[in-house]
Specification:
Order of helices and strands: HEHEEEHEEEEEEE
Distance between the termini: 85 Å
CATH class: Mainly Beta
Radius of gyration: 24 Å
Oligomer: single chain
Number of strands: 11
Largest sheet: 5 strands, mixed
Number of helices: 3
Strand content: 25-35%
Shape: flat
Helix content: 10-25%
Length: about 210
Amino acid sequence: MLKKSVFLWMTLFTLLMMTGCVERGVPTLPGERSHPGGWGADNEEENIDISDIDQNITESGADLSGEPQKVARIPFPVKEYARLPRSGKGTIKGSIYLSDGYDLKIPGKDTRLYLNPKTSYSDQWYEESYIGGRKMAKADDRLFNYLRFTSSDANGNFAFYGVPSGTYYLIGTVKCGSECGYERPKNIRIATQVRVVGNQIVSKDLVGRPY
């Protein structure tokens, strides 16, 4: 009798599972943790391609074969990143656009912006790639855990919320074509430093030259 009851209960449970009446959760693997969204206004998954902070190539960064000479990155400073605060109450807001200093102003519409903590690792990128125009070797994947992002609106306005105290490289890209004198649309990257302390609200525009 007991065996029949167990068999009936198992049969009933199987039918419920097959018909969707029992909620089936996704098990969490040992050591697995969820990855939070960015500090921007949206809640999309933080799927960041950091290759775009490595692609500031100029003629000075190419060899005779036409291939860019990649600068080796310094070892990823684990301890330096471990000391960075992971939560905060600061706000960084502003606009991203290109300007020639006169009448031309081209906003970065619906573009992705990054906050990259200022470390020896990001300092190397800024000096070698952004300022020097040289191609960098692939960034360490652990950098994904420290980059934060948001998106601008149709007018180029953006904001980061819940920013921990610290100094960051604020990075964004504006696409510009014939209005900048280019035959084909070109992505123009802009980067600057910004610092936030406590619950401070920092206004910082990201402004670049169209040529």
